[in-house]
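Allow me, if you will, to draw on your knowledge of protein folds for a short while. The matter concerns a single protein, recorded as an amino acid sequence and a row of backbone structure tokens. Could you please explain, in whatever detail you think fit, how the structure tokens follow from the sequence? I remain grateful for any guidance, and I place the record below:

…
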Amino acid sequence: MNKLSATINSAGMLILLMAGMGCTDEMALRSVYTAEIESLDHIANPYSQVDLKAVFVRPGGDSIWVSGFYDGNGMYKFRAYCGETGKWCWRTTSNVEGLDGRKGIFTVRPSGLKGKLRIHDEDPRQFMYDNGDWFLHIGETGYRYLVDTEGGWREYIDQAAGMG
């Protein structure tokens, strides 16, 4: 059974859901590929009795293994971050016959997506996106100063208030 559907997640990324053999889809670079496959096998507890893994072969030839998970109603999913352009292939291994040996192909095309955050290449105290853009991290972590048993709390609050 081949099943192909698409959805937009909360971050506005197109996610293609695919099951079956030989489907070809296109994904955006730095997006997340989600495969959805169905099993008609009756399993008493699919959360603990099913071992599902998928190997993704990237365009450069290296591979990554990911674990699949049960999503309800006989549906299983696994995901991979599309960090390289070109043709990707995947194949499943499972202790459940209906999930074992499933495979698919998709192509990752260039995109304007920023990608995941990671430590900046030139400054380990900063972050950057996978596309190279710097990530401006603004945050306040003075939680410990909100209790009067912590020394210096009044000075901290006065300084923060003075800065706006």
